[in-house]
Amino acid sequence: FMPLTSMYIGEIQRSVGEKVDTDIWTEMDTLTQNVGTDNVDLTDDNFIDADRQINDGKASGDERVMVISSLTLSALQRMERTNNSLYKGNYNLDLSKAGPGYKGMMLGYGVYMTQNLPAGAAGKVGFAFHRWALAHVRQKDIGVRVAQAHDELAQSVIAYTIYGNKLMRATIGVELRGK
């Protein structure tokens, strides 16, 4: 026999994790540099232009990250450079990996896919940035407590974490406006 509350703990922890993820990308949504057009697939030229803007901000060439939506990931799958073996050195994506998370490297960027990106007018806003553009601090990992109400036959499941985000250098981050 398994207590009913234990069935919910994993889902509650995932929900808190999604909230942290959403808050990170909401903080990044204050960037002033951007490429692409809302609700239109991003192109190779958009990614190259984003990289140029980050270079102009004097970011080092390593520790770069790109966070995109599932629709932008689909657009990447249709690009010639991601499918042609002549470009495999610069586009080393494993697009077969299902679900959110790390998808591989593209143009020196670690590519991540998430569904928790801020909405544009009609599409989603992704981001390309150097690691120093954003500070994310987490003092406590996601914890869970189950509390028994003494005056009734009920339990409360409480999940919590302590974290903070701050955009540190806007010149080394670019909004990727697309789908």
Strand order in space, largest sheet: 1-9-6-2-5-4-3
- State the separation between the terminal residues, measured CA to CA: 46 Å
How much of the polypeptide forms β-strand, as a percent range?
A: 35-45%
What is the tally of helical segments? 4
Helix/strand/pairing category: alpha+beta
Q: SSE order, as H and E?
A: HEHEHHEEEEEEE
Largest beta-sheet details: 7 strands, mixed
Q: Quick one: how many beta strands?
A: 9
Q: Taking Cα atoms only, what radius of gyration do you get, to the nearest Å?
A: 19 Å
**What does the average pLDDT come to?**
83
Helix content, binned percent: 25-40%
Looking at the structure, what is the overall shape?
elongated
Low-pLDDT regions: none
